[in-house]
Amino acid sequence: MVWARLNHVSPDLIIRIIQAPRGLSAEEKRNKLLEIFHESKDFFQLKELEKIAPKLKGIVSQSVKETLQSLVDDGLVQTDKIGSSNFFWSFPSQRGSIVRNRLDTSRNAQSSHNSQLEELEASIEREKAIRPESALRTVALEKLSAANADIKTLEAELRVYGACDPVKVEAKRRAVILAHEAAIRWTDNYSILITHFTRQNGVDTQEIRKFLGINEDYEDIY
Question: Which residue ranges make up each domain of the chain?
């Protein structure tokens, strides 16, 4: 069906369609925008770049701001505010310096990782020398693996019981004991305070209890 339609299109039109310029990729826009800075070695405002970028490098003006910001974020373009205007600039040596710094950082990281790898390999060899393979060691490792599997099974079974977990039960029992001891302690403090107050002011204990809304069984803690 498509080929049938193409048979009615002139060869010149097909060639023009094939040769039509494609849009720039994000990386191409970045490179071309950097070229404006490096070739001119000048300072620009955003409005100036939006005006000259389409003419000089074929960058759509609407995408200049986003492309410029990505270069600023990567440290390839510098910016500063002078008065009420923001100015942008970049020099060829600046990009080379950034690339060299990144390369040095990568090399240092690689060296560190290689050192760690060598240490780990040496540690593995030392452990192998200390623990040579033997029938007894193989049996012991199998028992250890089986024991770990049993522990996982028991832990899973214990989680099913939830509140009946002995550890949780013991923690709750201990919390109840502490709460009971605290209640007794504060009740004793209350009794001491009431006694002191009645002696100092000559007030009947029952009147104080009635005023504070305290029942007769307040001190009955079992």
Answer: 12-91, 92-132, 134-164, 167-212
